[in-house]
Design the sequence.
């Protein structure tokens, strides 16, 4: 199965393990909850999906790599305890709490979230001294004398032996205590995640052209060669920051993340070409509706790879504006909820308005810190909360400086700023819609209603934020071409059915 399918399977397992009966007890007791074992090649996003699951289910997450643990850190340190048995005192070996179990309790205490996922990565690479204790843990959820608290689901992961020499293959007894999910790498699935994550357009375009370069693990004598999804994602983040600082992106940088000489070289060459296309085609002018005839002529005469690069440059710029617009709308929707509560308190409370604002800022800050400690905070939620706190701080400072003291005046001042932000967001939405029209108009003028325009439709449909924007804000051009695409697909299906009947 692919990583997306595995995510749904794990998510379903967590759901049923956390399901309670009418008495508040878990329907499947902890001891009967089979840990999930996610088995797949390195760098395909196993850790990333655990973060997503925790965020989507609203539970905490504690992650550990088992290769970093000795028997002592996992099980706890021994100490001598005096105990009375049958009126006689004995010296008994006890153990301190496992570092792993202690972290679970600390997370519960700090975040106030009582349910969560304990994710143990590389579980089939534990040290020889720790291996015997793993069987007991997988069945009874106990390290030493200390148990995983109820409400915490154990999920494990590991690499197949062909990728890691330190892997210990589990015996049947151990395997029989696990829910095993075997995962394989798949570019099209990763691309959905990458598009939502904002992976650099040059990487996605390069991999669209050379899909075989997405994932590769080779172990030759004296040399290891590997290219992973994690490598491409980390490279994307590095490139974004290099571009911000006007630093040179070259093969030296690429090869630090893409550990295959040929692929690193080919991508570095393509990155330079991608940047040249961006400059030559004046992407900003196309989206503003000012493309000159020379650009149209070059685009029309371009070979397929160059055409695909041009389309992806247009999409990258378009999707960047879409994400920015949706992010703004998202935090404003969260902000209005806070402002409603502030309005109520300003109307009902005799406290100084500044004190009321400070209380809300403190409360939001505290909640944000708790969610961070639970490791279940999505990027969007974190961004929105941070922006809201910043805006409230700015309003507080402005109100102080202007000496606004009356409760009603304070709220009107805050609302005026909010209304201005909403107005700007709506103007931005209109601008994005115009850019999308200009994009479709340019491609139609240059290529007609050929495959290029349907590539745009397909990519906009597949991209999470583009699809969300179009469904909520609309796009006449998209709907027009999507309708034609659906018609052509149906026509193709009918012809295939007719061919099948003719053969019979």
Sequence:
């Amino acid at each position: 199965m692919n990583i997306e399918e595995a995510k749904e399977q794990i998510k379903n397992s967590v759901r049923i393990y956390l399901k309670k009966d009418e008495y508040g007890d878990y329907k499947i007791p902890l001891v009967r909850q089979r840990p999930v074992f996610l088995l797949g090649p390195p760098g395909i996003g196993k850790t990333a999906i655990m973060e997503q699951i925790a965020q989507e289910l609203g539970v905490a997450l504690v992650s550990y790599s088992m290769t970093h643990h000795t028997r002592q850190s996992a099980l706890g340190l021994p100490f001598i305890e005096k105990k009375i048995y049958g009126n006689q005192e004995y010296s008994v070996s006890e153990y301190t709490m496992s570092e792993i179990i202690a972290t679970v309790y600390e997370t519960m205490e700090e975040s106030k979230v009582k349910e969560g996922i304990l994710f143990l990565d590389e579980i089939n690479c534990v040290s020889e001294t720790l291996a015997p204790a793993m069987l007991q843990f997988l069945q009874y959820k106990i390290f030493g004398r200390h148990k995983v608290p109820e409400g915490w689901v154990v999920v494990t992961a590991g690499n197949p032996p062909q990728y890691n020499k330190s892997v210990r293959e589990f015996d049947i007894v151990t395997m029989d205590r696990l829910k095993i999910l075997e995962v394989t790498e798949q570019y099209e699935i990763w691309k959905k995640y990458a598009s939502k994550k904002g992976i650099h357009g040059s990487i996605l375009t390069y991999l669209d052209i050379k899909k075989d370069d997405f994932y590769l693990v080779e172990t030759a004598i004296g040399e290891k060669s590997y290219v992973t999804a994690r490598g491409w994602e980390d490279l994307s983040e590095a490139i974004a920051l290099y571009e911000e600082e006007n630093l040179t992106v070259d093969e030296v940088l690429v090869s630090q993340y893409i550990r295959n000489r040929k692929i690193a070289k080919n991508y570095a060459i393509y990155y330079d070409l991608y940047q040249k296309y961006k400059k030559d085609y004046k992407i900003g002018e196309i989206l503003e509706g000012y493309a000159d005839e020379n650009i149209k002529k070059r685009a029309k005469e371009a070979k397929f790879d160059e055409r695909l690069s041009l389309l992806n440059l247009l999409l990258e710029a378009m999707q960047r504006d879409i994400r920015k617009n949706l992010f703004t709308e998202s935090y404003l929707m969260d902000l209005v909820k806070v402002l409603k509560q502030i309005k109520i308190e300003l109307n009902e409370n005799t406290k100084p308005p500044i004190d009321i604002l400070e209380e809300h800022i403190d409360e939001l800050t505290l909640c944000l810190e708790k969610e961070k400690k639970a490791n279940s905070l999505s990027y969007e939620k974190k961004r929105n909360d941070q922006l809201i706190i910043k805006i409230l701080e700015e309003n507080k400072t402005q109100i102080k400086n202007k000496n606004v003291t009356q409760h009603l005046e304070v709220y009107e001042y805050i609302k005026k700023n909010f209304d201005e932000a909403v107005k700007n967001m709506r103007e931005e939405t209109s601008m994005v819609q115009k850019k999308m029209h200009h994009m479709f108009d340019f491609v139609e003028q240059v290529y007609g209603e050929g495959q290029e325009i349907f590539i745009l439709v397909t990519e906009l449909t597949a991209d999470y934020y583009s699809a969300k924007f179009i469904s909520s804000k609309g796009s006449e051009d998209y709907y027009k071409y999507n309708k034609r695409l659906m018609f052509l697909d149906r026509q193709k299906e009918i012809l295939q059915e007719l061919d099948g009947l003719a053969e019979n």
The chain has three domains: 3-184, 186-281, 324-418.
